[in-house]
Amino acid sequence: MAATLQGATPVPPDAPASVVVAIDGPSGTGKSSTSKAVAAKLGLSYLDTGAQYRAITWWMLTNGVDVDDAGAVAAASGKPVIVSGTDPSAPTITADGADASGPIRTPEVTAAVSAVSAVPEVRAAITALQRDIAAEAARTTAGIVVEGRDIGTTVLPDADLKIFLTASPEARAARRGGELKARPGDAGVDLEATREALLRRDAADSSRKTSPLAKAGDAVEVDTTDLTLEQVIECVVTLIEDKRRTA
Ligand SMILES: Nc1ncnc2c1ncn2[C@@H]1O[C@H](COP(=O)(O)OP(=O)(O)O)[C@@H](O)[C@H]1O
Ligand SMILES: Nc1ccn([C@@H]2O[C@H](COP(=O)(O)OP(=O)(O)O)[C@@H](O)[C@H]2O)c(=O)n1
Question: Long-range contact list for 95-103, CB < 8 A, 24+ apart?
Fold first, then answer.
């Protein structure tokens, strides 16, 4: 798999040391929206690691790999070339050169991603890619915000700052429900079904053997249930600025 840093903001020669920020948490806690906004505000790169797991899952589904067969998934794990663009204002993701940004958000991919991402060979390949991208960003830009499930615990245990976002299942389901458009003739979004699907994915991601969803011991936990997105962004910007001041 190839690591390519695209859309990076070049770092001026007299700039302060770069910063590496890990943001983890379950689905719907605001990781992507917060990470993108914070990175854009502070001139940092941005990496959505969930998009990478979704892209490899999409590649498996479209290349005839049985995603319920861990052996088949493991055997194919090194085949696709996943490339992430790290500009927070226009993040991109491709698999073997094909734009995956639309297909990775389909219900089919969402339903299969936890099984694919639990396969150790998939995690090894994607983790190596993530570390390459973070190292390249730390070397050539002002730094990077990397968001996912195991960034603080496994991918970047030496990150300068680790944040773990949480929110109640009800708040997360309402947020996800707000993103899903009701089709004509539908009764609307079923919040209970959305909540159950979220909790199922949390359980699968938290209980897998290899690198489960978990809060790192040295992560700052931010409960976003009663915060607006703007408040969460402000909170994370402050944490990063404080970290930089005291570094
Ligand atoms: N604090 C918040 N309050 C209300 N809505 C939020 C908040 N944080 C995020 N959202 C919204 O919730 C949805 C899910 O957020 P997202 O950033 O994709 O979460 P995650 O990456 O953790 O799955 C998005 O529509 C986003 O705009
Ligand atoms: N660092 C990561 C990021 C995502 N993932 C997997 O990828 C899936 C999709 O992640 P995502 O961040 O796009 O999910 P949402 O929270 O946006 O729905 C998760 O449910 C995990 O199974 C992972 O295993 N490790």
Answer: 95/55, 95/56, 95/58, 95/59, 96/59, 100/51, 100/54, 100/55, 100/58, 100/59, 101/51, 103/58, 103/62
